[in-house]
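Input (histidine kinase):
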Amino acid sequence: MDLAEEPGIFTWDLATDTVYADSALANLFGLDPEQTIAGLPIIKYLDRIHPDDKPSVAKAISDSVVTGDPYRHDYRVFDRSGQIVAVAAFGRCFRDAAGNPSHYAGIVFRTNDQSQQDELSAHCSAAFKIAKSSGLQATADALEAILKELATPIPSGIAPLH
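Output:
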């Protein structure tokens, strides 16, 4: 299995706020594998989540830590080149003998939504051409902006890692 397709495994020590992860997770999140294996603060992973997805991911993880319920969430991250990668994550918070949250473990894997994005781009492109040829300039402008957003791999303010 190619590392790009391999699921990433992690464990998060809540007391030290250190996430230990394998090289597959490093690859998904665009992080250095040596650093992920040695452990990084959770914020390093949260920084790689798409800004539109970050609040819901943070809330879902927090809810899982508080309740002890399993975590399941779909979201987008930026890989090393700054490309958006759709992922699905499963996790669970484990408690110590006193019942306090102590460790959180899970798995993250790439999902295949590229075909959906390609289809969306194709439909928007067709709608753009129709709006343009029909003289609907405001609609054409809006669709052109959407097409540019769909083609942009990374929003401003988030620098790709090299």
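Confidence is low (pLDDT under 50) at residues 153-162.
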